[in-house]
């Protein structure tokens, strides 16, 4: 068996003790989602928004050399860890301005090793909380809040902090 197959087997070994015997993973149906979350990543950090909640996460040093779509997929991993409890049993639309990330989410597979590792974690989170996800691409100009959060720690951070506060003030 190759290393990727072994990693898939390890995923199942990790998940099976938590399996409730009734449902595993649903195929996403094109109904109105219960929740919509949006994520974004920059060179230094990622951020996400779910309703009035948000997160921002500064990438550790080992992530600095990763490709941007790796960071975008990692933003989804972080979002599911942050909001998993709130997404239990729901259909979730994930808005992202990175087309490669959307394709990975919707296909449920990728040939890229790091992205596949992130996808395994996404699917593990979804299996545990029994939620359905679907990625949708949105233009970067329409992904303003997560974009500001992802730039919170980088160059021009004050500018993005002010934009975020102006967008969320009174909401």
Which descriptors apply to this entry?
46% helix; globular; alpha/beta; single chain; five-stranded mixed sheet; 171 residues
Structure description:
The protein is built from 6 helices and 5 strands. With 171 residues, the chain is α/β, with parallel strands linked by helices. A 5-stranded mixed β-sheet has the order 3-2-1-4-5, with helices on both faces. Helix 1 runs parallel beside helix 4, helix 2 crosses helix 3 and helix 2 packs parallel to helix 4. The protein is globular, with a radius of gyration of 16 Å.
List the uncertain runs.
none
Structural class: alpha/beta
Q: What's the total count of β strands?
A: 5
Overall geometry? globular
Could you describe the largest sheet, including whether it forms a barrel? 5 strands, mixed
Please estimate the helix content: 40-55%
Helix count? 6
Order of helices and strands: HEEEHEHHEHH
Measured between the Cα atoms of the first and last residue, the distance is 53 Å
Report strand %: 15-25%
Question: Mean pLDDT, rounded to whole units?
Answer: 90
In short, what is this structure?
With 171 residues, the chain is α/β, with parallel strands linked by helices.
Question: Which secondary structure elements does this structure contain, and how are they paired or packed?
Answer:
Blueprint: H1 3-15, E1 35-41, E2 45-50, E3 53-58, H2 68-87, E4 91-96, H3 99-107, H4 113-129, E5 132-137, H5 144-150, H6 157-168
Parallel strand pairs: 1-4, 4-5
Antiparallel strand pairs: 1-2, 2-3
Helix pairs in contact: 1-4, 2-3, 2-4, 5-6
């Amino acid at each position: 068996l190759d290393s990727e197959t072994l990693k898939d087997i390890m995923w199942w070994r990790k998940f099976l003790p938590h399996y409730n015997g009734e449902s595993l993973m649903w195929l996403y149906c094109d109904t109105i989602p219960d929740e919509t979350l949006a994520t974004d990543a920059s060179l230094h950090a990622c951020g996400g928004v779910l309703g009035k909640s948000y997160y921002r996460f500064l990438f550790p040093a080992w992530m600095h050399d990763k490709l941007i779509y790796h960071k975008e997929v990692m933003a989804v991993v972080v979002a599911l860890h942050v909001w998993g409890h709130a997404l239990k049993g729901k259909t979730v639309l994930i808005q992202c301005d990175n087309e490669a990330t959307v394709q990975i989410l919707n296909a449920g597979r990728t040939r890229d090793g790091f992205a596949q590792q992130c996808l395994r974690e996404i699917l593990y989170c979804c299996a545990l909380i029994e939620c359905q996800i679907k990625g949708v691409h949105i233009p970067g100009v329409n992904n303003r809040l997560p974009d500001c959060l992802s730039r919170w720690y980088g160059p021009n951070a004050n500018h993005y902090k002010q934009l975020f506060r102006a967008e969320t003030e009174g909401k």
